[in-house]
Amino acid sequence: MCGIVGAIAQRNVSEILLEGLSRLEYRGYDSAGICTIAGNKFSCIKTTGKVKVLKDEVNLVGCPGLIGIAHTRWATHGVPSKENAHPHICDHLALVHNGIIENFQELKQELIAAGYSFKSQTDTEVLVCLIHSMLKKSSSVLDAFKLALARVKGSYGLALVDLNDPDTLYAARSGSPLIIGLGIGENFIASDTLALLPVTRRFIYLEENEIAAITTRAVRVFDLNGCEVDKKIIESDLDAESISKGEYRHYMQKEIFEQPTSLQNTLIGRIIDDKISNETVVGIDDNTFKDTNFIQIVACGTSYHAGMVARYWFEELTGVATNVEIASEYRYRKAVVPDNALFVTISQSGETADTLASLRLAKEQKFKNSLSICNVNGSSLVRESDYTLFTKAGAEIGVASTKAFTAQLLSLLLLALIIAKQKQAITEEKYKEIITSLRALPALCQDFLSCDKQIAALSEQFSGKHHCLFLGRGVMYPIALEGALKLKEISYIHAEGYAAGELKHGPIALIDNEMPVVVVAPDNALMDKLVSNVEEVRARGAQLYIFVDNKAQLKNDKQTQKVALPSCPEILQPILYTIPLQLLAYYCAVINGTDVDQPRNLAKSVTVE
Ligand code: AGP
């Protein structure tokens, strides 16, 4: 989704801004722009397409200045074009914006009546004109900014510069994340810490409805009433290298192969004396979940699939009734909340608009407490939840979530064990058995990655295919859904996941010899049932790709290809069987020649509804 970078320094800022934009590319965008101030005038350059095009243009014509703002735009109002790209300028003000101004049409009519005219179709241009119009009623740009925001309905992360005061950078946030980076004699703004890692690791997180005035020497943050707010400085544990591709061709590939390490990182310090330490979840004590009677999990996309797996684990290991729901649905439903209910959100970014809105709703409902499973320290979800379990997957750049998903699964399993222990719902034997399995996970993950070459070869057979089905049963059903989501989002092959037992209730009509069917079939209690479902598909001519345990008695034939995977404990199967599906999606995307790390129309962090 859109990215913002802003800088004020005693050196030329255009390089900092462009490097920041490059580091935000992973979020997804369709055009980019930059605006600096030098010699009492704006240098404003906008381009469609990649940041590289903008960089080339800046190198050609120059964009000097000690203050500036820049933006990558993911079109909402108006097509991707130069005119609609940010920054938008009104007289001596220039603005970049993430989010959506819902009442922009009404405001636009008022401004047209007051004599303003517009070059773009965007809500952002309306907002910069609105701020400008408020200057008549106020004594400063900061006041005009506040007055304008009071008229706005919707969500925003904003960075504003004023030609008449090139010593101040302004920022505001409501619903769209924005951080301030602190340098020495220079300060920055961005929508994501990753953008600023080459220049600082010290950050201030703007909260909802806060507005900031930033100079080279000072950062002042105000609330809606104009009262100055004391802000905490948070040091990031990421470094600039966290977003290098290393020897890999794509970030996604690197992130898939990083999983033995990322899973190890999720575990580090969490198992102490054969017990999952309470410190695994920030803020809890021995009794936090003792009375928990109901768990509601809410998330989107891949994180939702992690929640679906967790439901099996929570109910089996803790005995607590668990519901899992897509955030965009939950937030508009009148859910019945029993006593002693725990609200769990899952999110890689911690900024997903629907998940955040669901958490805010849960706080109004009668949930006893809220817990986020999140990969980003300092994110909105983390700041607004009672407790947090950090997934510790490290920065994930590829739009398709891979290592964050397996880290979410592992984190949810740790949480299930903590709750089970507090509720005394699990036998000592079972608990120990799972702890032993967890210790083996990183090495097993490495073993699973050795199917890489076989999957690369097998992917060739998907070339030219337009549809694909993924089947799984029980806890592997959400993994089939995740396999299908991965394939469709990056290879653009239409793929659907089904619970294998559901196939004969409709989707089996789609099966013919042009339809590849991927079956996730580890050795578990539902294996025999799954085999019967597979026979129904085989009888209708489907091409079968079956991911099984290497001990399984299954022969390759004209219709069936087996991918034999290492034996592993049943509890770890959802985590480990995800890996070959990620590889399949990756290689199909490479063969189809898509933009693997930034697939079309997608954004890494979905900060609008
Ligand atoms: C995953 O591959 C997707 N790109 C997407 O479904 C993602 O999981 C979803 O948007 C939720 O994001 P979050 O985990 O940051 O909340």
From TrEMBL:
InterPro entries: GATase_2_dom (IPR017932), GFAT (IPR005855), GFAT_N (IPR047084), GlmS/AgaS_SIS (IPR035466), GlmS/FrlB_SIS (IPR035490), Ntn_hydrolases_N (IPR029055), SIS_dom (IPR001347), SIS_dom_sf (IPR046348). It is found in: Cytoplasm. Catalyzes the first step in hexosamine metabolism, converting fructose-6P into glucosamine-6P using glutamine as a nitrogen source. Residues 285-425, 458-599 form the SIS domain. It holds the Pfam family SIS. HAMAP family: GlmS. Its EC number is 2.6.1.16. Keywords: Aminotransferase, Cytoplasm, Glutamine amidotransferase, Repeat, Transferase. It catalyses: D-fructose 6-phosphate + L-glutamine = D-glucosamine 6-phosphate + L-glutamate. Residues 2-217 form the Glutamine amidotransferase type-2 domain. Its main location: cytoplasm. PANTHER family: GLUCOSAMINE--FRUCTOSE-6-PHOSPHATE AMINOTRANSFERASE, ISOMERIZING, GLUTAMINE--FRUCTOSE-6-PHOSPHATE TRANSAMINASE (ISOMERIZING). This is Glutamine--fructose-6-phosphate aminotransferase [isomerizing]. Homodimer. It is an enzyme of class 2 (transferase). The active site is at 2 (nucleophile), 604 (for fru-6p isomerization activity).
